[in-house]
Amino acid sequence: MTLLYPAFLWLFIPLVIFLWSYKKRDLITTIHLIILILIVTALSRPVLQEGLQERSLEAKDIIIALDVSYSMRAKDIKPTRYTFAKETIQALLKENAKDNIMLMAFTTNPLLLSPPTTDHELINIALKSLNPEYILTKGTSLKKLFKKITFMHRSKTLHQNLILITDGGEEENVESLTEELEKINISLTVLALGTKQGTTIENPDGTLLKDDKNNLVVSRINPLLEKLASQIDGHYFTASSSPETTARDLQEALNVEGQEADKITKMQYNYTELYQIFILLATLLFLVVHTRASKYLITLFILLGVNLEASMLDRYHLNQAYKSYKVEDFNNSKSKLKKIDVPSLQSQFALGNTYYKLHSYKKALKVYMSIYSTSAKTKQLLYYNIANAHTMLEEYDKAKIYYTKALQLGADEESKHNLQLVTLLKKKKDAVLGIAHPKSQSSDSSKSESGESDKEETRDEDQPSSGSGSGGENKTDEKANKKDDKEEKKRLISDEDQEQQPLSSKVYELINKGYIRETQPW
């Protein structure tokens, strides 16, 4: 059990103080205290945490690229350009509570600080952990940043928004920068930090930064930034009076041009709420103390509690099964799932996956085949799992069918890859069984059938046919074999009621030599 709001447990302190100081407690007072304890526990929101599930939600896809080069230490924007940019990002995160945001830092090379997430607290942590004092790079490369973004965007089709926070560095070739951004489906919003007249940059020891020729370095806004934004129909801003005002300006830029939120997928934990149990018990105790129909109420709550208890036990066993599965204790996971009285979609999937991990592929198939769902995503995952189980059982034809079904419900790289792999495995298996290739020839193939050819006919039918044998028999053995083969051939031909053999590649070889009666020729 997990508490989502453990801060409410501080309310237990006054309750404990009251219990300690109040010496004369009667039954009613004690029950009232128990009711208060149950209510406080319910407020802390106890839950059972289950496995991760993929969910779709509507949100903008935003990339925030923060310049952390040495020039961002300039103080023409108070307190510094970097501090102002950092506070602006924090204010922007509050404005975009539901959006999917990625945070990158860059100097001469880009660095991913936080992957795309709707959990903005993680981005704040990443932002706080970045210490610009340890970054000594004095250059800024927008081109490398754009190339990195283009590379990460290559597998996506969703529209993205890039918020570029920088003073611009010394970039000059706006055409090459524009060319990089035009390769992908992205909108640009530039926040240019600095002033046009520029300012000197102070070193940590209080001295001013100088170049190689001992000249003072003056950092100012690069006019290329405004030109870049205009060429790709982007937005260009400079710092407002405060980070909060600047963040609102950036937010308004994201909301213009009718840009709709896209469907994105997010992995989220599922929770089973338990607060109802504590509220139910508190209500029951209150009604028992203050109503006359306590007997009927107790009976009613017991009946409700039985069903609730059964459901909660199933949730508990499922939660324990997930935990065992996560640490690869599959046998324990299986035993927990077996204790569930009312199977659910989650528990059935978990049981099938557990059997699969235990290499009980036939049992896994049986469980997968019993699952029904109207969700296309669920069906696609189900077909993929079924195909994997058939593959492990070397039932490649069936595996190909279910991989194809999975692909019919939507693009899936894993299903596509496995389908190609299964096709290759099927060809290899057919080749081993002598189905895919004809019987090979050798320089000794002109020898009499009573020799090495007859030896091949006595092999196990499941073995692949191959070339000539070693020819290690003496003449007496050859005559005996020849005589036995002739008698066997005569017996097979004369037997009208001989059971018809399966038409494998070996059987067709025997048909060609006249050993088996073919009642229905081609």
Question: Mind explaining what this structure looks like?
Answer:
The chain is of the alpha/beta class and 522 residues long. Helix content is 50%, strand content 14%. A 6-stranded mixed β-sheet has the order 5-4-3-6-7-10, with helices on both faces. A 3-stranded antiparallel β-sheet has the order 1-2-11. Helix 5 (142-153) packs parallel to helix 6 (174-181). The radius of gyration is 37 Å and the shape is flat. Mean pLDDT is 75; it is low at 436-480, 488-504 and 513-522.
Keywords:
522 residues; alpha/beta; Rossmann fold; six-stranded mixed beta sheet; 19 helices; 11 strands
Give me the side-by-side strand order of the main sheet.
5-4-3-6-7-10
Main CATH class of the domain at 61-260 = Alpha Beta
Q: What is the structural class? A: alpha/beta
Give the total of beta strands.
11
Distance between the termini: 70 Å
**Biggest β-sheet: count, sense, barrel?**
6 strands, mixed
In terms of quaternary structure, the protein is single chain
Please trace the helix and strand order, writing H or E for each element: EHHEEHEEHHEHEEEHEHEHHHHHHHHHHH
CATH architecture of the domain at 61-260: 3-Layer(aba) Sandwich
Per DSSP, the total helix count is 19
Provide the helix percentage: 40-55%
Poorly predicted sequence stretches spanning 5 or more consecutive residues:
436-480, 488-504, 513-522
How does the overall form come out from the CA principal axes? flat
Q: Looking at this structure, what is the CATH superfamily of the domain at 61-260?
A: von Willebrand factor, type A domain
CATH topology of the domain at 61-260: Rossmann fold
Q: What's the gyration radius in Å?
A: 37 Å
